[in-house]
Specification:
Strand content: 5-15%
Number of strands: 3
Order of helices and strands: HEHEE
Strand order of the largest sheet: 1-2-3
Distance between the termini: 28 Å
Largest sheet: 3 strands, mixed
Radius of gyration: 14 Å
Shape: globular
Length: 71
């Protein structure tokens, strides 16, 4: 019930990792934005691109190093 009462702002972003889910998540993201009248800036689509074999570099902002906005 929490989610229902707090939609659409209960969702901060949509995300995916790996090419298998790209088309499905893009369609779901687009439908969500249209249904709630939101923009990609309000609820972005993010790609997660790090793994244990490719950790973030020594950038100062490591928390965001693995996420790319692909909205």
């Amino acid at each position: 019930m929490y989610w229902d009462r707090h939609l659409p702002m209960a969702i901060e972003a949509f995300w995916y990792a790996g090419a298998d889910s790209v088309e499905h998540i893009r369609g779901t993201h687009a439908a969500f934005l249209q249904y709630y009248g939101l923009t990609p800036e309000e609820t972005p689509l993010l790609e997660y691109s790090c793994s244990q074999s490719s950790p973030p570099s020594d950038r100062e902002d490591k928390a965001h190093a693995c996420w790319t906005d692909v909205s």
